[in-house]
């Protein structure tokens, strides 16, 4: 694959990833089929994994002289929007539940203790860690193995994670062991970095043997069937089960192949280019759409994530148009972390 094809494929893949994230945060109480709900929940978990892999793929250590320069660059594109929208959602929680403002609660909220913002905390930490680490394949392989092992340890409440069995364990400690545990995610970022370094996509396309196409189709069918079996037999709905990491990677492979087929669809590409602001504000918009505007139904439950992503994209486009007319485009893009 040429660099342009890889970029376009990843834009489409990011569209599927943000769709999965929104799906993970949706409610499916009206869908009567437990198997469908199970598939939706499994698909919803792959979004974060895909974002970390793609982030690793595009990471450039040489782009920044040091960690401080990296953090300075991310202040405008990530940290400022993160704080603004994190506080906005915290305030809606305050008004809807009657909870009082508490500085400690706000900080924990922004860092991702019990909130979807854990992704940004982990993402910034990963950028800093890989800026400091030598760019060596052996280190990346070790980190991939660390994540694989760590996920199984968390899943089985083994070793340092045996505390998760306790009913009296503090919620902060649970989040530090799971969502905010860097070792549960670092391997995916390392995988993306390794994939770029080894030119994995070019290598696969360079395969040249008699039954190449049929072999690829057989492998794809096998992965799909294996994915279905693992989803059906999996117990639990978290990132940390015996099958979770393989389910997530199975979705990555299948969605990558689908993204290759759709890589020239401009509309999907454009949505994939602005997944950060969609991620930041989807809780506000999606909740309003389905609690105040659209009626609840089985059909709406099935297509709810797609409707949410499309409406948020249109609203962002409308906001951009208005900000240009009012000469506020710079402020608008900063608040939302846009790169238009």
From TrEMBL:
It is a multi-pass membrane protein. Residues 12-309 form the Acyltransferase domain. It is found in: Cell membrane. Keywords: Cell membrane, Membrane, Transmembrane, Transmembrane helix. GO terms for cellular component: plasma membrane. GO terms for biological process: enterobacterial common antigen biosynthetic process. Coiled coil: none annotated. This is Acyltransferase 3 domain-containing protein. It comes from Anaerocolumna chitinilytica.
């Amino acid at each position: 694959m040429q660099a342009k094809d890889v970029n376009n494929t990843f834009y489409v893949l990011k569209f599927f990833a943000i769709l999965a994230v929104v799906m993970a945060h949706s409610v499916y109480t009206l869908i009567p089929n437990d198997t469908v709900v199970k598939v939706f929940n499994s698909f919803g978990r792959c979004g974060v994994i895909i974002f970390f892999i793609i982030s690793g793929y595009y990471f450039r250590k040489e782009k920044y002289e040091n960690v401080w320069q990296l953090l300075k660059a991310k202040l405008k594109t990530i940290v400022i929007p993160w704080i603004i929208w994190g506080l906005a959602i915290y305030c809606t929680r305050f008004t809807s539940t009657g909870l009082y403002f508490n500085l400690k609660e706000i900080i924990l909220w922004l860092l991702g203790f019990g909130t979807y913002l854990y992704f940004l905390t982990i993402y910034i930490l990963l950028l800093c860690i890989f800026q400091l680490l030598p760019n060596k394949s052996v280190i990346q392989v070790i980190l991939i193995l660390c994540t694989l092992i760590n996920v199984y340890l968390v899943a089985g409440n083994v070793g340092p994670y045996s505390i998760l069995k306790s009913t009296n364990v503090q919620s902060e400690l649970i989040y530090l062991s799971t969502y905010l545990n860097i070792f549960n995610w670092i391997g995916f970022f390392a995988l993306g970095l390794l994939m770029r370094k080894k030119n994995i996509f070019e290598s696969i396309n360079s395969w040249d043997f008699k039954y190449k196409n049929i072999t690829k189709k057989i492998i794809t069918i096998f992965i799909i069937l294996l994915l279905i079996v693992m989803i059906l037999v999996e117990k639990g709905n978290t990132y940390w089960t015996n099958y979770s990491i393989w389910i997530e990677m199975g979705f990555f492979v299948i969605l990558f192949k689908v993204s290759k087929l759709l890589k020239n669809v401009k509309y999907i590409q454009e949505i994939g280019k602005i997944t950060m602001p969609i991620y930041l504000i989807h809780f506000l918009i999606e909740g309003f759409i389905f609690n105040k505007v659209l009626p609840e139904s089985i059909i709406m439950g099935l297509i709810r994530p797609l409707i949410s992503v499309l409406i948020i994209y249109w609203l962002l486009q409308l906001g951009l148009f208005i900000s240009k007319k009012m000469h506020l485009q710079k402020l608008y893009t900063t608040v939302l972390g846009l790169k238009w």
